[in-house]
Amino acid sequence: MKASKFIVLVGGILGILSFFLPLVSVERHGATASVSAFQVIKGLDEVEVAVDQAGARRAIDVETSAGAKKDIGAMKGIVMAIFAPAVLLALIGGLGVARKRFGRGAGAFSLLLGLVGLGIAAILKSAAEGDGGVGLTLLLVTGAAGVVGGLAALVKPERAQAQTPGLATVPAPVRAAA
Q: Count of domains in the chain?
């Protein structure tokens, strides 16, 4: 199906955009606060700088500083891993568009990445308990697009088109010997 690669590509792009949109939007007592994954990463960078400065001033010992930096790096990795299926879906869809084909292999990978993305987004959405932002909804859409595009490619893969010659050669007429 020709549309499957575009479904996967658009789903991946929406997932990448969700990195910059509010994942959680909380409203309590008339005040609203929202945070995106980008803001989380930037905040963790600032915390890492503060840990470095505190370690340089010897306000905390070297072991505590190293442990804190390791934990901050792990948190960054977790946040980035949430968006890995979206990036990979965008890459698979982009390659499909560039190659002008989207076969069963790409469909299978899209289906698996879509299921992983859908699972991650569903877990985060349930953890947010109604405070999920637009970014979480787009992550769900990304997973669904990966599943739909992958299934469509598995059912009816788009194969490479056969190369046809530009001009057909006409055989020369055979002349009878006199």
A: 1
Q: What is the pTM of this model?
A: 0.75
Q: HEC profile for the chain? A: CCHHHHHHHHHHHHHHHHCCCEEEEEEECCEEEEEEHHHHHHHHHHHHHHHHHHHHCCCCCHHHHHHHHHHHHHHHHHHHHHCHHHHHHHHHHHHHHHHCCECHHHHHHHHHHHHHHHHHHHHHHHHHCCCECHHHHHHHHHHHHHHHHHHHHHHCCECCCCCCCCCCCCCCCCCCCC
Which structural domain, as residue segments, surrounds residue 66? 3-26+34-155
Give the Cα-Cα-Cα angle 20, 26, 28 (nearest 5 degrees): 155
What are the pLDDT digits (tens) for 22-32? Answer: 887 777 788 77
Has residue 11 been placed in a domain?
yes
User: Would you state the pLDDT for residue 118?
Assistant: 92
Answer whether residue 167 is part of any domain. no
Q: Do the domain assignments include residue 111?
A: yes
